[in-house]
Structures are given as structure tokens and as C-alpha cells.
């Protein structure tokens, strides 16, 4: 089996489940050593690490609460110290809360929304800033967005959409910043899939599926394949791009 990422070291945030675990598997299958992060699911993270090691690569799990941006530098330092460097950063960790609650809902949990902004947006930026200092030349950064960041479609998703939309601009900006070092920076806008995040309520889910060109929930492995491509040498002339892997939600 061809392994274009042989000798590379990757970090996948939120890699203990769902899309993050699928991305970690895809990178390992391509030959990369992989670090994953988790918040509280140490047992699940350990299972993923064992699976990756079984694929013939080195793998570690690091506990990290992405909502606390002050921990980003320690996370990157830990990965570099334990695996010997960093070539690929996959920003996958995210949360979704208060779905269906509109901005004027008196019962909305503002503290939960603030934590979501910290996890999905400022926490991602903190990790990118820390990683950019040590990422080797010709490295790769891939951030996982959502079609909801481009087309919201239904009420009650404004804050989640904002966290993902903001990362589109940040991705394009740092693509310019890091291009002189051969580092490419791209986004994959993921669609509906079974990831372990809080699912939409059944009526919202039904409406979202009906809005797709491909009217089904996706398998995380489908989007992981797109992530692995953008992490590979084959994507060397692609940067600042937003790739939709969402069944035509934004079409």
C-alpha cells in the first residue's frame, strides 16, 4: 500500500471519536505517526491509539481542553517532545450546543454558547498560532468547518455558524502568511455525519437531509479521505481553499 505520509507527524484534535478518529486512521494508513487530543474520553482515546499502533505507526493521545487557549502551547510542545516534530495539523475538535434556540430565546444558555465560541474558534486559532512556530516547512494545516458556516438554512444555529464562518477567513489569511514556507492551509466543510456530537433534533435533521443533493447522512470516512488528500504531497498547489464534503448542502 502506498504511504505518501511516511515519516510525517500529524496532530488531530478531537481524535477520540467520529470524524477525528476517522481522520487519524486515514493519516495512519498513509504512513503518518499520529497524535490525537481528547477532553474527557480517555478510554475512547486509548482505543483509537491502539488501533493506530496496530496500523504500524506511532500514536499518542494528549488530554486538552481546547476552550482554554492558554493550553495550546503546552499541547504542541508535548506532541513535538514525544513524537519528534510536527508536519500536519488537523483542527477537528469542536462542540455544538443550544441547537434550535434562536438568538431571542429567553432560555438560551449564553455560557454554553460562549464555551462553544472558545472551543470552535478562539481555541482553534490558539493551536494554529502555537503550531505555526514549530510546523516544519512544506507542512499542512487542515481545519474542519461546516457547510452551516456558509449556508445556515434553518433557525437556531447562528452561533455555531459564526464559529465556522470565522475560520474560513482565518484559513485564507494564514494561507498567505505561511505560503513562503511551503505550508498549505485549507478547510474542509463537513456535512451531516454520525460523529458523537450533539445531533440536531429529529425535525431539524429531517429538514437538513432534505436540503442535500445527496440525501443521506455521510460516513466520517468519506470526509476523512478529503482531509488525507489535503494533508498529502499531492495537494502541494492547493492553499486557502474551502472544500465542501457535505453532500451538496452548499450547492
TrEMBL record:
Keywords: Oxidoreductase
Keyword Oxidoreductase: yes
This protein's record includes keyword 4Fe-4S: no
InterPro entries: NAD(P)-bd_dom_sf, SDR_fam
Family: Belongs to the short-chain dehydrogenases/reductases (SDR) family.
Alphabetized PANTHER family for the sequence: OXIDOREDUCTASE, SHORT-CHAIN DEHYDROGENASE/REDUCTASE FAMILY (AFU_ORTHOLOGUE AFUA_5G02870), SHORT-CHAIN DEHYDROGENASE_REDUCTASE FAMILY PROTEIN
Full protein name: SDR family oxidoreductase
